[in-house]
Design a protein that fits this description.
mainly beta, ten-stranded antiparallel beta barrel, 68% strand, globular
Length: 300
């Protein structure tokens, strides 16, 4: 069985075994609005085995953005929990690098996630919420002012105006949240999620100085996929409640994704590459992200 399936089975077994011995968690529903900073780095590597050997990759580095969003929790019963979150951000700057091509980044980033969980009170001061859910994350950016260090015979630097890129990951996840109540006004939670995802990267360049065949020759115009992405997400949150129902807090999130070594069945492209790159390439993907968010909300 795969990692996520095993992990989900472990969570379900945990709930079934512990529920008769543990009480319902004394938790409230809430709705929080949040805003803050996000950092991303994404890279993918492509290897062609054709008449010649060629290895290349695309790196989207130091993607700094500001984002806003919200998250909520609804206690359907004393045990059953529904959770959800969503964010939308604006890319401030970033760096693009593909072999000899470089450029600057602009665009947007957004993500959504929904889950169902079972809240258990393990101790008067702490408990656990095993959960399963689905998540989607997308980075929709434009590479601006692309240029290359390759100098053709006429000694003119080749340039390309823009490349439209969309990177996305989606899939199911299983995880748990540990919550602590050190005082009546302070709540602390630590969460972990194991994701199984499908990555897709779309690239559509403007023609620039290369002519109509640039997409095929340069390898940009393509839809690349990897169906074997594994993601790990860690969250740490502190919430202070005042006036009985209002709260302020801080949320830190770190996640990293890695694609398993993909075979030909995991790769697609919309434009057939020119010879000698006629065989299906192999692709490897990595995605890292960190965010720090300030929260303001209402508990009920």
């Amino acid at each position: 069985m795969r990692k996520v399936e095993l992990f989900v089975c472990f969570l379900i077994l945990q709930v079934l075994l512990l529920s008769p011995f543990l009480g319902a968690a004394n938790l409230c529903s809430y709705l929080d609005f949040e805003g803050g900073y996000r950092w991303d780095k994404l890279d993918n590597r492509v290897v062609f085995y054709g008449g010649e050997f060629f290895a290349g990759g695309q790196i989207f580095n130091q993607i700094n953005s500001v984002q806003i969003g919200g998250r909520g929790r609804w206690m359907i019963t004393d045990y059953l929990v529904l959770k959800g979150l969503g964010h939308y951000g604006w890319v401030l700057d970033g760096e693009f690098d593909q072999t000899t091509y470089t450029g600057d980044l602009d665009g947007n980033v957004w993500d959504v996630s929904a889950a169902i969980g079972w809240a258990l009170q393990c101790h008067p001061c702490w408990g656990v919420i095993p959960s399963v859910g689905w998540a989607y994350s997308e980075l929709d950016i434009t590479v601006k002012d692309v240029s290359t260090g390759i100098v053709p015979p006429e000694s003119k630097r080749i340039s390309l105006s823009n490349i439209d890129c969309k990177q996305s990951i989606q899939g199911p996840w299983g995880g748990f949240e540990l919550f602590f109540d050190p005082s009546c006004c302070l709540d602390i939670s630590l969460a972990y999620e194991l994701h199984k995802g499908r990555w897709r990267g779309d690239y559509f360049p403007d023609v620039g100085d290369f002519g109509p065949d640039f997409g095929r020759i340069g390898g940009f115009a393509a839809k690349r996929t990897n169906n074997h992405m594994w993601g790990n997400i860690f969250r740490m949150e502190g919430i202070y409640t005042f006036c009985s129902c209002f709260d302020v807090g801080l949320l830190l999130t770190y996640e990293f994704w890695k694609g398993q070594y993909a075979s030909s069945g995991n790769f697609k492209r919309t434009i057939t590459p020119v010879a000698p790159f006629t065989n299906t390439p192999v692709i490897d993907v990595g995605w890292k992200s960190f965010s720090a968010m300030v929260q303001v909300g209402y508990r009920f």
